[in-house]
Amino acid sequence: MPAGIDLTAIVDEQPYPLVFATISGAHLYGFPSTDSDVDLRGTHLLPVEEVIGLTQPAETRTVMADRDGVELDLVTHDLRKFVRLMLGRNGYVLEQLLSPLVVRTTAVHAALAELAPLVLTGHHAHHYRGFAATQRRLFDTTGELKPLLYTFRALLTGIHLMRTGRVVAHLPSLLDAEAAPVYLADLIAAKRAAEHGGLGDLVAGAVLDRDLAELTSRLDQAHHDTRLPAQPAGVAQLNDLVVAARLTDSAR
């Protein structure tokens, strides 16, 4: 958790009750710098009258704030949209749901986390491969360590998920669980020292190309070999959870 920042205040200010709020981004991934933004992600619950009326409610809320000199970025989805994203093979929302850096939790949050394994599929490999490719292109443009570490993190998370069925977003933990280049620990230390620092001469470009290609190949093989199903399950249970949460909240 980021030290010295009251994260509950911004959560308490939201107009709709939050199902959960967790910390994502570099803090979750294990390489925040001293001046990193704090990315808060979560789920809120729209009231029944806004969902069943004639107008289409805004299902996503974004709030930017500065607290004690730290930029906070809070993005929440209505519960129904969040569950649709879960069922859409979106690894990013699962990382948010399962983040150990919890700012706000509820019984519905716990129920969602319990159902999360049911939505995991082999197709989540495409999510992590695509995210890694996007971050690699960003690194090629900026030369900054941050997108490079995001690239490695995405590939290793995808490999670990395909092998074990577990979503692990914390890069230092992944280095203990999966074979990875030994220099990643040095890159993490350099990123923690400077949010927008560059790679410099820490690793040769040819070495990066080789190692990223090897990890991408390992992700493809892990996808081929995975025991995860092709389609998500738990649709009925998730539907019942969304309905019960909405009706229970409206009765308060």
Largest sheet: 5 strands, mixed
**Terminal Cα separation, in Å?**
32 Å
Order of helices and strands: HEHEHEEHHEHHHHHHH
Largest sheet: spatial strand order = 3-4-2-1-5
Amount of beta strand: 5-15%
Tell me the Rg in angstroms. Answer: 19 Å
**How does the overall form come out from the CA principal axes?**
globular
Write a concise keyword list for the protein shown above.
five-stranded mixed sheet; single chain; 55% helix; 13% strand
Can I get a quick summary?
The protein has twelve helices and five strands. By secondary structure, it is α+β, with helices and mostly antiparallel strands. The protein has a five-stranded mixed beta sheet with strand order 3-4-2-1-5.
Structural description of this entry:
It is a single chain. The chain is of the alpha+beta class and 252 residues long. The protein contains 12 helices and 5 strands. It has helices at 7-12, 25-29, 48-52, 79-87, 91-97, 107-119, 124-142, 145-164, 171-177, 184-193, 205-225, 235-250; strands at residues 18-24, 38-44, 60-67, 70-78, 102-104. Strands 3-4-2-1-5 form a 5-stranded mixed β-sheet. Helix 4 runs antiparallel to helix 12 (235-250), helix 8 packs across helix 9 (171-177) and helix 8 runs parallel beside helix 11 (205-225). It is globular.
Strand-helix topology:
Elements: H1 7-12, E1 18-24, H2 25-29, E2 38-44, H3 48-52, E3 60-67, E4 70-78, H4 79-87, H5 91-97, E5 102-104, H6 107-119, H7 124-142, H8 145-164, H9 171-177, H10 184-193, H11 205-225, H12 235-250
Parallel strand pairs: 2-4
Antiparallel strand pairs: 1-2, 1-5, 3-4
